[in-house]
Write a structure and sequence with these properties.
With about 110 residues, this protein is α+β, with helices and mostly antiparallel strands. The chain contains 5 helices and 3 strands. It has a 3-stranded antiparallel β-sheet with strand order 1-2-3. The longest helix is centred in the N-terminal third of the chain and has 12 residues, at about 25-35.
Length: about 110
């Protein structure tokens, strides 16, 4: 059995990227909990219905300073979200961190991914 050295271990940030579902579904869960009690609060949708609520998610992201664009993923044949903060493209995880800072609340994955 191979011994893992520290530089080969996944970081907590790496592990956050290893999830199921599409990013719109994850965003609806995350933003639903993060924005609870705020006017920008959005619904919580599953993978089959979340695309019907794209604009609601877009507006929720804009309320915390994240611009989004829906982009077609030709490889998987579906749509994914591209995230932008101050015009710079960022990863989904970075958008989550930014949103938490704006709202002033930190969520553990178990707080919203149920």
């Amino acid at each position: 059995m191979m011994k893992l050295e520290n530089e080969n271990k996944l970081t907590e940030e790496d592990l956050e990227q290893v999830v199921g579902g599409n990013n719109m579904e994850q965003d609806s869960k995350f933003l639903n909990v993060l924005l609870r009690g705020r006017p920008e609060h959005c619904g919580r949708w599953g993978s089959f219905t979340v695309a019907d609520h794209w604009w609601e998610l877009h507006d929720a992201w804009r309320s915390v300073g994240v611009d989004t664009q829906k982009e077609y993923d030709g490889y998987f044949g579906g749509y994914e979200v591209a995230y932008y903060i101050d015009g710079k493209r960022v990863r989904q995880f970075d958008a989550w961190i930014h949103a938490e800072k704006v709202v002033g609340k930190h969520l553990k994955r178990a707080d919203w991914d149920w």
